[in-house]
Amino acid sequence: MRTVAMVTQKGGSGKSTLSACLAVAAQEAGERVFLIDMDPQKSLTKWCHRRADKNLPVESVSAGKLPDALAALEKSKVTLVIIDTPATETPASDAAMKAADLCLIPARPTIFDIWASEATRGKLKTMGKEFAFLLNQCPAMQESQRVTDGAAALESMGGLLRPLIASRVAYQEAAREGRGTTEIDPDGKAAEETRMLWASLKRRLAKVKSGDKVGKRAA
Ligand SMILES: Nc1ncnc2c1ncn2[C@@H]1O[C@H](COP(=O)(O)OP(=O)(O)O)[C@@H](O)[C@H]1O
Ligand SMILES: [Mg+2]
Predict the structure, then answer these.
(1) Which residue segments constitute the domains of the chain, with CATH numbers given?
(2) Which atom of ligand 1 is nearest to 84's Cα?
């Protein structure tokens, strides 16, 4: 079982959206996925209830109960746990960072998000945790200087998972329907992007689990 936590001190960067879409893409690729929602806003829980898919369960878990919850899942058939966290530094986000095999830090290509990512990265480095950045909500039409600079900044801070994720209505529509981008339009660009992102994440997880400390080494 591998555990991924979506973490960043910035709200609105796409933690819940990407947790949901990655969960569906991973499930379609054969993983048994379990979602843990540690955010009091409960976006992922509401998405899951709308979805009503018993094969993709969600549970709300407090910081104190996270280690026991993960230990129980470790004994089940679950192969992938994705933890969604609040946007601020809380015991919940600290517990998720501590428990995860890999922390993903989504950021939009804006300087405020990059600065917030830097702070999260600092914390993860202090904790000695593996991490990778995601660049989300990039302009879909052209790769602007803002995106190129953002990608370079995150790359230099310890590694960026590809592809860059564009700003697309499909991500919002999928969330509204309790589905993933790969379900609402399997041949669409958002679906392709999400599948590629899962493939990159899977490769990164394999390296982390095998002890090849990619994030730490690159940082
Ligand atoms: N790639 C994307 N394209 C378009 N809208 C997006 C994308 N990612 C996230 N959003 C939208 O941005 C907002 C914030 O996303 P959300 O997942 O709630 O962020 P967080 O959980 O980090 O606070 C939501 O309204 C969501 O629909
Ligand atoms: Mg959220």
Answers:
(1) 2-210 (3.40.50.300)
(2) 21
